[in-house]
Amino acid sequence: MNTYLAITIGPIYKTMQQTRKTREAWISSYFFSLLMKHIYTVAKPKGSVILPTEKSKDNFFGAGIYPDRLIMTLTDENIDVQTQIIDIAIKEFATKIKIEYNTINSYLNIHFIKISKEEIKSLVILNDKKEEITSDIHKLNYLLDVKELNLSYQNSDSSFFTELFKHATRKELYKTEFNSKKYKFDSIFDISAQHSNALKEAKATITDNDNIEVELLKNENFLNKLKKHEKYIAIIQADGDNFGKVVASFNDDGEKLNNFSKDLVAFSEKASAMIDSFGGTIIYIGGDDILAFCPVKDNSNKTIFDLIDELNKEFHKVFDKPHYIENKVSLSYGLSITYYKYPLNEAMKLAYQLLMYKAKKQPHKNCIAFQLLQHSGQTQETILEFGDNNNFNSFLIMIDNFSEKDKLLQSLTHTLIEDKILLQECLKNKDRLNGYFLNHYNTNEKTKDVKDFIDAVKKNLFSTYKKLVEQNEKNPEKIKETKNIEFETLSQLNTLCRTINFLNSENE
């Protein structure tokens, strides 16, 4: 087996952007996952698959689980990949989901690389830091990245989407994944307001199951009964950090790669169960890659931020081996929280952009970039870091509910405006900031809940301020961009306070 084969399929992002309903988002994602499963099945007897690991369809709660890439070694280096693997897989797949082969084939962007081990080793490829890539697998992924830039655009896009989202195709996909053509995929309200009695009452009067969401949108009585957070949907998009370094460190060791794949599957199963338990609907999960639609709160009043905290902790339980720790693997998140009327494809795009262009651009990654886009037009957006001395854990404490919470938030929001100049000076000295909060909130005489809240506020300010100072020291250009670190620190706290107000509020 002296020849590598690497395959990539798409266009996934372009397809996802055509979705208008939750079920269409799932169909768009599951379409490619199922296609890769067919490619995997056809390719497997022709060699040895390195990535991905074959997966059971159990324990993933309906999510697509096959990634967009396959890497293997071939038994026969003379095999015609296009006709003997890809074309066969597409034809079987087309028959399975009842869409014409030509309709699917003309839309897809499938690229492959067949190359000998000697050729791949002789290639000199540099990463973004101008360092030479030594791992064969890493090189193959790089070459696939280049191949993906060669997109083909056809005039048949509209006909493809008509076929993809039609009733018959949907039912076949439901049958494949859920063992029932009569399966009903969760609508936005089934996710955001799933514990609402108003939803149960309204759905009981609807007979047209295919248009439940349309009927609910017309029902003013139902909409008026919903709590504020039940009118919003949270979209989580997560992606692993530094996994490329991990794969490179294996130096193409088959056993290590296999164990790595098993770890990805293990986390996928655990994360799927956690998201499902929270009430979320998983669109795709591939170990270090997650897309899910979730309520803002579950039935126990746990928030979407609590779920992310639990996912993050579980991630580090699974990826706790030395090679993961040495390469500082982590998960970064993009989180959009949008009103039910906001276009779903735009909400997904927002989560993706928050992940890729905000969270993943931070010096150490390992963070969450979120945006709350309210019905009023107000937008709250910031980035919170995980890890040591982070500002995410203090935010979680601030979210906790207690009797004096609303008054404290109102006072703090007022303070951030009235004492802005004084607070900016206090940020430069920890003792001064402690003294400020002691004088203004008399914390020595308050309840434990109040003390914990004020301590969390101070910790949040300290960690945010320290992070911004360190970023400026490491990047002189940043000093020109950030005219006032103290102002930026207080602005972030104001954003967090407004987000907490939203989470606590019952009504618009």
Please sum up the structure shown.
With 508 residues, this protein is of the alpha+beta class. It is built from 24 helices and 10 strands.
Structural description of this entry:
This protein is an alpha+beta fold and about 500 residues long. The strands form two sheets. A six-stranded mixed sheet has the order 6-7-5-8-9-10. It has helices at about 10-15, 20-45, 80-95, 100-105, 115-120, 135-150, 155-165, 165-180, 190, 195-205, 210-220, 220-225, 245-250, 255-280, 305-320, 320-325, 345-355, 390-400, 405-420, 420-425, 430-440, 450-475, 475-480, 485-505, and strands at about 5-10, 45-50, 70-75, 110-115, 230-240, 280-285, 290-295, 330-340, 365-375, 380-385. Helix 2 (about 20-45) crosses helix 3 (about 80-95), helix 18 (about 390-400) packs antiparallel against helix 22 and helix 19 (about 405-420) packs antiparallel against helix 24. About 55% of the residues lie in helices and about 15% in strands. Strand 8 (about 330-340), helix 17 and strand 9 (about 365-375) form a beta-alpha-beta unit. The model has no long low-confidence stretch (mean pLDDT about 90).
* Quaternary organization: single chain
Mean pLDDT: 91
- Count of DSSP strands: 10
Q: Based on CA inertia axes, which overall geometry fits?
A: globular
Rg from C-alpha positions? 25 Å
Number of helices: 24
* Estimated share of beta-strand residues: 5-15%
Query: Separation of termini?
Result: 63 Å
Largest sheet: 6 strands, mixed
